[in-house]
Specification:
Helix content is 32%, strand content 18%. The chain is an alpha+beta fold and 259 residues long. It has a five-stranded antiparallel sheet, covered by helices on one side. The chain has a three-stranded antiparallel sheet with strand order 6-8-9. A two-stranded antiparallel ribbon has the order 7-10. Strand 4 (81-88) and strand 5 (92-98) form a beta hairpin. The protein starts with a helix and ends with a helix.
Length: 259
């Protein structure tokens, strides 16, 4: 009997069992296989609603800044929210928003290979618009490459031949009003590269500005990068060596004189 049972074909896992194995939060599990994790190590998922419409579901354990998200959405700088927010036991919230489909041209910032000068300009202006929300006190706090999507739109002026970029901000979970929101405790220093020891610090407007500039610099393809200040001062390594050789003999002579 036991041997026969061992050779019985195993039953395929049900969708709910597979979702449990994959670590899908219980409030998102269903009887179909329409859930996909979009960001590794983050509870951000691609789901479908009852009508089959694609959505993004984000599971958070802290209060989500819905007002900031809605203001940004009205400005065309964030995906539209699906209200109401789902409240779950343990103060967990499920935030659902529209899915920015890659088939519509949306891509992560580091994959963009168009006009980077235009992207830099549009992104910095978008940040100014973000900072004007919440009566001019809004901050984001997590402007890493994974939290910016970009696409190119057709030129809106006939005289302009190049495509114009559009930027969207994602993952506003750390956002809110400046002076009222802080970085999470034990935050990974790689997530906030431009702030020293960010754990528990207040998130400030200039933090966002520095972080966005750093993100744009890191994602910018090599051929579009500006030379660093040190390289502009020093045209070549050989020139530096020549200057060293010119300085060295007088120093050597003075040492010999003293000895």
């Amino acid at each position: 009997m036991e041997l026969a049972a061992a050779h019985q074909p195993s039953k395929p896992p049900t969708p709910r069992n597979k979702q449990l194995t994959d670590g899908i939060p219980y409030m998102l599990r269903n009887d179909s296989n329409d859930i996909e994790q979009l960001v590794k190590r983050k509870h951000v998922y691609h789901v479908t609603d009852e009508e089959g419409k694609s959505l993004v579901a984000k599971v958070v354990a802290t209060a989500y800044p819905c007002q900031l998200h809605e203001e940004l959405s009205d400005l065309g700088l964030a995906p539209k929210l699906v209200v109401p927010v789902e409240e779950c036991p343990g103060r967990v919230q499920v935030i659902k928003m529209e899915y920015l489909d890659p088939s519509d041209g949306w891509m992560r910032l580091e994959r963009f290979n168009g006009d980077w000068d235009a992207v830099h300009e549009v992104a910095m202006k978008a940040l100014e618009s973000l900072q004007s929300c919440l009566d001019g006190k809004a901050v984001h706090g997590d402007l890493n490459p994974s939290n910016l999507l970009v696409r190119e739109l057709e030129p809106y002026l006939e005289a302009r031949s190049s495509m114009r970029p559009q930027v969207m901000f994602l993952d506003l979970a750390w956002g809110g009003s400046e002076g009222q929101v802080t970085y999470p405790p034990f935050v990974n220093g790689k997530a906030v590269r431009t702030v020293k020891n960010p754990d528990g610090q207040l998130i400030l407007e200039n933090h966002d500005t520095r972080q966005l500039k750093d993100t744009l610099r890191r994602c910018r393809p090599q051929q579009y990068r500006q030379p660093s200040t040190s390289l502009r001062r020093c045209p070549s390594v050989h020139a530096c060596r020549r200057r060293v050789r010119c300085i060295t003999p007088p120093i050597a002579a003075s040492i010999q004189a003293v000895s």
